[in-house]
Amino acid sequence: MSPSAPSAPGGAPPPFAVGLLGHGTVGSAFDELLAQRAQEIERFNGRRPVVSGVLTRSRGSFQEVLAGADLIVELMGGIEPAREYLLTAMRAGKDVVSANKQLLSQHGEELFETARQHGVRLRFEAAVAGAVPVVRVLEESLSATPIERIHGIVNGTTNFILSEMGHGRTYDEALAEAQARGFAEADPSDDVSGRDAAAKMAILARLAFGTPVHLEDVRYEGIEHLQLDDLAYARELGLGLKLVGSAERRDGGLSVHVYPTFLYSGHPLASVAGPFNAITVESETITEITLSGPGAGGRQTASAVLGDVVSVMTGGARPPAPPLALEMITDVHSAFYLHFDVADRPGVLAKITQVLGDHEVSIGSVVQRGSGEGARLVMVTHPVLESGIRAAIARVAEFDFVRSPPRMIRVIAEEFM
Amino acid sequence: MSPSAPSAPGGAPPPFAVGLLGHGTVGSAFDELLAQRAQEIERFNGRRPVVSGVLTRSRGSFQEVLAGADLIVELMGGIEPAREYLLTAMRAGKDVVSANKQLLSQHGEELFETARQHGVRLRFEAAVAGAVPVVRVLEESLSATPIERIHGIVNGTTNFILSEMGHGRTYDEALAEAQARGFAEADPSDDVSGRDAAAKMAILARLAFGTPVHLEDVRYEGIEHLQLDDLAYARELGLGLKLVGSAERRDGGLSVHVYPTFLYSGHPLASVAGPFNAITVESETITEITLSGPGAGGRQTASAVLGDVVSVMTGGARPPAPPLALEMITDVHSAFYLHFDVADRPGVLAKITQVLGDHEVSIGSVVQRGSGEGARLVMVTHPVLESGIRAAIARVAEFDFVRSPPRMIRVIAEEFM
């Protein structure tokens, strides 16, 4: 109980005072949801949560909101002043809840370290996958189960666009449709570049593996350069295309990346269509569990934030543990889809496979198809180091019969799992 | 900290003493996993968990195990003496963890009430869906989000059998395969009758809706009577067959049941194949989230039990809240698949549809097919009260042109969602 919380009449426990920073779409949805659910939360927890103060750009004082609060909820977004407010709140001994993925992915260690030093809780379920409770599940499962790998579809905008492209629309048509339906911003670059997904994977990897991971440690590629014919060939090979974030133990280190990825049809993420999020957690003990649901809308995000508030009220969260140190590995093995646009001449396939073989790239399947004066060669490789395949592709690109830059896309294929 | 826990040397916090009741498959897997993970758990929680005593049929004393423990883990199974031990432990002020679905589904209110009276925690993640953390998610989301409906595939054995039947095997062949692969017991009746799933749905419904629900409140049907041709017709209609448990608010009350159910192909549970579990939670706020993973094996169950132990150590669980009281509703609206085996005569379809219409059963689609001297009529209805369709079917069964008992199977169809 905070000394600043006023006593309720009649000896009942005082309300649990929530100071709210930010009152945009998510902030106002949170404010409304908290009022709706306050009675039910009191029934379970013995105290009624109330919003004790609100800070927006145009009204309120941070110091007053802080002084009157048991807990601070930050829904402003952006780096500053959100970072400074959260650090100040934790130094004042207040628990904090945030939905700010930019801040957590770029300044996570500073926030975790401050929470640890001051013995307060830092909760951020809403920063990753909206109402899909992956943060909670990772935190609580972490000490019971050593996690080996996470694969996630953590950006609903790109998943919607790829679903539409799977139905034959071009990238531009699919993006326009996403914008018309409110799934994509007017400037979609943070989503389609993979950067938003990379920020979320940094947060998930930090949680799952206990090692500091920041946005700049995450390699990512977006979906802007994908071609419709790649999707058509992949369908022939029984593969579907998703923007997949992966965080996995590799060679004693940790690899975190976001790439467009072909998945075999039985993979738990393969059937996730439209503006949805899904995360698969693999470990030897639990084998594999998958969590899925809608990407973040205002009410879903508000619900995740309120869940964090309730978990602080029930005492169900701890200050973060000290970090471990796994080395970040960037050159990892993977299967690849390759697409070559070549002149239709004798000996072309032999020359390409010779170069691939020189770089120890072994081919699992090939589709060759004429296209007028040229031919398309589509291959799926067995797992190979990324550096090796990039070197091989660079050599192939130098042949005079290659008519446009070769394309490569990562593959998660059943036979290699 | 329990007064009975011995102090560790050097002023470090004493270990967290776990008294273990039962040392079969799950008990020994838990014992082993706890030893493997003790150091990591200590890193996060400041105390190291140890198994301080074990009770089996042949060794140990319950009173001694209880006296030396901070927390009791019950992995014996069955009703007695598990029930008496858990009640005694809670009355002695100890937190308890159990994986015992029979006990929780038949004596849940007594256990919840005892936990509430004595202010102790009662955790049971492993009793429902193995390593799939649905109990935790429901408990923690409950006060933030009013849940409207849960659909679950909560029995891996029957899901495996139905997957095999979907590939053209008969029920008997599929059951034999499940037994050969260790997914079904020698006596599979608890699984194939739907009773095991009903017990789990009782526990889930209690959690999600805060209302006492016991096994005897749950209507259930099994999969023993399903016919291969029902599956074939359903495929033509774009539907797949699962044993689905449902708990939902209906007409101000609560309906909980387990039935073989046809799902449209886009439903989140439709793609769950093999010995897996999956649960979909729907609410207005979060729309819909789905959790899936392997059905319970020894190590998955042990992992869920250890997760419960860790959540007690972190203080992240509360004694149960007092129950609410929603009325149990048994006669609910649903769409149905109907199968009639009739003599191939003029006027048959008209007579059947006349009877259905008299009972306000409206038909969404019909497939008619000759089969030598007879014909098969397959229909999918629009949503209708179960009592209404049962009355209609009973009337149809009296016609002399009906050659075998009509069959009906519940449908969850996209156009009605």
Please describe the structure with a list of short key phrases separated by commas or semicolons:
homodimer; 417 residues; alpha/beta; Rossmann fold; Dihydrodipicolinate Reductase, domain 2; Alpha-Beta Plaits; 3 domains; eleven-stranded mixed beta sheet; five-stranded parallel beta sheet; 14 helices; 27% strand; disordered N terminus
Short structural description:
The first copy, chain A, is of the alpha/beta class and 417 residues long. Chain A has helices at residues 25-45, 62-67, 82-91, 101-118, 126-129, 134-142, 156-166, 171-180, 189-192, 195-209, 228-236, 298-313, 348-358, 386-397, and strands at residues 16-21, 49-55, 71-74, 95-98, 122-123, 147-153, 219-220, 239-250, 253-264, 276-283, 287-294, 333-343, 363-371, 374-381, 384-385, 402-412.
Low-confidence stretches of chain A: 1-8
Assembly level: homodimer
User: According to CATH, what is the topology of the largest domain in chain A?
Assistant: Dihydrodipicolinate Reductase, domain 2
What's the CATH architecture of the largest domain in chain A? Answer: 2-Layer Sandwich
DSSP E strands of chain A, number: 16
Strand content of chain A: 25-35%
Structure classification of chain A = alpha/beta
Please provide the ordered H/E string of secondary-structure elements of chain A. EHEHEHEHEHHEHHHHEHEEEEHEHEEEHE
Number of helices of chain A: 14
Radius of gyration of chain A: 24 Å
Most extensive chain-chain interface: A-B, 49 and 49 residues
CATH superfamily of the largest domain in chain A: Dihydrodipicolinate Reductase, domain 2
